[in-house]
Amino acid sequence: MIIKTFVEGPISANNYLLIDENTRDAVLIDCSSPREEFVNAVKSENVNLKYLFLTHGHFDHILGCDKFKEVFNTEIYMGEKDTFQVEIASQMASYYCGIEPPQITSITNFVKDNDEFKFGNITVKAIATPGHTEGGICYIIDGKLFSGDTLFRESVGRCDLPKGNRKELLHSVKEKLFALPEDTEVYTGHGPKTSIGYEKLYNEINNG
C-alpha cells in the first residue's frame, strides 16, 4: 500500500491518500481543503478514489468534502453522531479561523464500529473512538492506524469543544487503541506519526 500525506486546511490537518498499488483503487482519510492544488495532486496519482473516510466532523477535517465529491464522485463516510459537528462547521470556522466556508452537504453515508470496506485488495476497518467528538472514528488499514484527532504523538485530542468528553476519550485510547499491537504505526490528524508502543510509554495520559 502506498501512503501519500497532504497537509491542508486552516489548521494544517493531515489528509492521507491510500493506494492499492496493484489495482490503483484508493481511499482518502479526511479532506480538509477544496484547494485546486490538492485536488490536482490527487488527480495526478491516476487512482480510482472509491471512498472518502472522515475521522470526525470538525470543520478543519471536512472543508474539501463537497469539492472532492463533485470532482471524484466518491462516497463519503463519517460517524453519524458527528452530524452536529458538520451543522456547526461554518460557525466554528468563522470563530476559530475567521473564515466562512459553505455549508457541507455531501456527507450522507455513515460508518459504525467494526464496519469493513474494501478498496482493491485492502480492507478498511472502522473503530468507534468517541471523546474528541461523539462520532469519532479511527481506521485500521493494512495494519496501520489512522487516528484523526483521537491520538497524537505524546498527546490526545482536546475535549473542550462542543460534544467533547475526556472520560470517553481516555477510554477510547486506553481500551481500544492501546489494545492494538505495539508495532502499529499511527498516522495522526495533525503532526507527526507515531506508534502504539511509543504512546503506551510516552503519551501524556500516562501522567494522569
Structure keywords:
single chain, 208 residues, alpha/beta, Metallo-beta-lactamase, Chain A, six-stranded mixed β-sheet, 6 helices, 14 strands, globular
Strand content: 25-35%
Instruction: Tell me the major beta sheet.
Output: 6 strands, mixed
Globally, the shape reads globular
- In total, the number of strands is 14
Please identify, by name, the CATH architecture. Answer: 4-Layer Sandwich
Helix content estimate: 10-25%
Structural class: alpha/beta
N- to C-terminal distance:
37 Å
Element order: H for helix, E for strand: EEEHEHEHHEEEEEEEHEEH
- Which radius of gyration do the C-alpha atoms yield? 16 Å
Contiguous low-pLDDT stretches (5 residues minimum) are: none
Quaternary status: single chain
Overall pLDDT metric: 95
Can you count the helices?
A: 6
Spatial ordering of strands, largest sheet: 1-2-3-4-5-6
Per-chain topology:
Blueprint: E1 2-8, E2 13-19, E3 25-29, H1 36-43, E4 48-53, H2 65-72, E5 75-78, H3 83-87, H4 89-97, E6 109-110, E7 116-119, E8 122-128, E9 137-141, E10 144-148, E11 151-152, E12 155-156, H5 166-177, E13 185-188, E14 194-195, H6 196-202
Parallel strand pairs: 3-4, 4-5, 5-6, 10-13
Antiparallel strand pairs: 1-2, 2-3, 7-8, 8-9, 9-10, 11-12, 13-14
